């Protein structure tokens, strides 16, 4: 029997590690059913294993070297700036657009899809970079969702200052995604539907595996049960996995200690001495009920210079607080490292850093990196020359923190900070008429776009990096017996346009979630 529809549930930060104990305890029965009757794989995300770039790598089938997005920030050592190339997010065609050319596809809440592009059905852009207006195609869908579900894109409460309230709000948002998605499935009847729960990984980050995280997963499991029909393919996938943190490595503090980086933190230091920190100001404005107004009235340049309780500053302030002339290296969080210059001196610095980072251990003797790669061995494409010069694959339990201004190189997780960190091992489970059973060899997140295109009878563009996972299909199914069609032409590229989703509102949101430390 051929499937009528494909339902893909995107679970940000999901991996077997966190859900297997709950499955064994009988708390996630529908997920257990899908796993036991379907095909599973340990899927590898692209490096770094982070929401940005992995959701875009998933939807386009392209590595970050083609996308030009390497984390929540790019670093230009020669141009002396730290920035996010927001205009590149919507340059590349996404696989559901190609499915929609011959049939129909609907998308709910996938990160880095704001502003929404036209698709033959519907799209609802998602957090953390989406806004509360202009987030749907067709346009009138926004008011319909708001009127029917009181739908919203992002949460209001801070995970740092109001953790319990924020956790409850996240569970409500997860429920909203599914309720809206099922309603849109009935209304538009697409052959392909993707529903993604970005904030699930925020629960992993701040609460790891406690009851607040389980509650979010139980909501996911309950809604998945509604899709378990005989004629539906149901796929569970994630952009990366998660693991509990035991070591925080402040990589820029280490680079400064080793003589590769020099900071000028006089303004941030003065604010810290006066007691002006992000956490205190956030708590004060929240208690007074003026948080949103204060953000609107305070210039972004001022906000960027306010340090955290630990003395650190966020992404934009790296540009102003780094002595670029005296620095030869700068790191982002979770793996990317950039080195200034070229030629023999550049190669010497990179060789030394790769060796030192590969051998570096925390005070307990635990290694920091599973592997340390040269950028050109990981990234290829039009933007490869902008890629990190070094990319670290963090060891399990290690969180590489990329802020400036911290004094110590190693620390333990803060009580109000991240308890869980991303890892490269991601989740893939598929169940339904077209899919087989058992476990298949390790796959890449880049393989999913070609696989879903082939599943729906579409040709795979020549410039997609992934391969069709024929081994995932049932041997009696049409997608297994059909030859893979590879186009001779590339998927379309659109003209880059500035979309301004990287507003102060979005930057504050990313900071609250722990990305811009």
Automatic annotation (TrEMBL):
Q: Give the Pfam families listed for this entry.
A: Phosphodiest
Instruction: State the InterPro entries in the record.
Output: Alkaline_phosphatase_core_sf, Phosphodiest/P_Trfase
Q: Annotated region Disordered: where?
A: 476-517
An example molecular function term from Gene Ontology annotations: hydrolase activity
- Name the residue ranges with Basic and acidic residues bias: 497-517
PANTHER family recorded: BIS(5'-ADENOSYL)-TRIPHOSPHATASE (PTHR10151:SF120), ECTONUCLEOTIDE PYROPHOSPHATASE/PHOSPHODIESTERASE (PTHR10151)
Protein name (database record) = Alkaline phosphatase family protein
**Taxonomic lineage of this organism?**
Archaea, Methanobacteriati, Methanobacteriota, Stenosarchaea group, Halobacteria
């Amino acid at each position: 029997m051929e499937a009528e529809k494909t339902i893909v549930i995107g679970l940000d930060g999901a991996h077997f590690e966190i859900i297997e104990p709950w499955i064994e305890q009988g708390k996630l029965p529908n997920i257990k059913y899908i796993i036991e009757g379907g095909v599973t794989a340990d899927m590898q995300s692209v490096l770094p294993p982070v929401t940005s770039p992995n959701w875009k790598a998933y939807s386009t089938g392209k590595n970050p070297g083609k996308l030009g997005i390497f984390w929540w920030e790019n670093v230009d050592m020669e141009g002396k700036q730290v920035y996010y190339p927001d205009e590149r997010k919507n340059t590349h065609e996404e696989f559901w657009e190609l499915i929609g050319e011959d049939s129909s596809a609907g998308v709910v809440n996938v990160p880095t899809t704001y502003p929404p592009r036209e698709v033959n059905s519907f799209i609802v852009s998602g957090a953390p970079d989406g806004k509360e207006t202009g987030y749907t195609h067709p346009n009138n869908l926004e008011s319909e969702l708001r009127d029917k579900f009181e739908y919203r894109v992002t949460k209001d409460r801070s995970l740092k200052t109001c953790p319990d309230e924020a956790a409850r709000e996240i569970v409500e948002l997860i429920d909203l995604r599914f309720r809206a998605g099922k309603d849109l499935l009935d209304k538009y009847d697409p052959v392909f539907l993707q529903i993604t729960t970005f904030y699930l990984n925020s629960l992993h980050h701040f609460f790891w595996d406690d009851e607040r995280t389980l509650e979010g997963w139980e909501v996911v499991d309950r809604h998945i049960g509604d899709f378990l029909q005989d004629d539906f393919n149901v796929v569970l996938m994630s952009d990366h996995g998660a693991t509990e943190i035991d070591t925080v490595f402040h990589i820029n503090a280490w680079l400064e200690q080793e003589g590769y980086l020099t900071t000028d933190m006089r303004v941030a230091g003065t604010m810290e001495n006066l007691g002006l920190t992000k956490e205190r100001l956030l708590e004060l404005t929240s208690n007074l009920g003026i948080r949103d107004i204060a953000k609107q009235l305070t210039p972004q340049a001022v906000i960027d210079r306010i340090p955290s309780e630990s003395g650190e500053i966020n992404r934009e302030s790296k540009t102003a607080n780094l002595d670029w002339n005296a620095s030869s290296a700068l790191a982002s969080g979770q793996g990317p490292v950039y080195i200034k210059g070229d030629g023999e001196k550049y190669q010497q610095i990179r060789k030394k850093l790769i060796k030192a980072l590969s051998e570096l251990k925390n005070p307990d003797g635990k290694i920091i990196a599973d592997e340390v790669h040269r950028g050109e061995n990981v990234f290829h494409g039009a933007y490869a020359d902008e890629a990190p010069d070094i990319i670290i694959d963090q060891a399990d339990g290690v969180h590489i923190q990329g802020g400036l201004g911290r004094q110590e190189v190693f620390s333990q997780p803060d009580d109000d900070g991240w308890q869980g960190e991303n890892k490269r091992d991601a989740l893939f489970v598929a169940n339904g008429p077209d899919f087989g059973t058992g476990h298949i060899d390790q796959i890449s997140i880049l393989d999913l776009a070609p696989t879903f295109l082939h599943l729906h009878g579409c040709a795979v563009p020549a410039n997609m990096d992934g391969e069709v996972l024929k081994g995932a299909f049932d041997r009696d199914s049409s997608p297994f017996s059909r030859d893979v069609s590879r186009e001779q032409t590339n998927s379309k590229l659109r003209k880059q346009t500035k979309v301004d989703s990287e507003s102060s509102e979005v930057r504050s949101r990313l900071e609250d979630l722990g990305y811009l430390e």
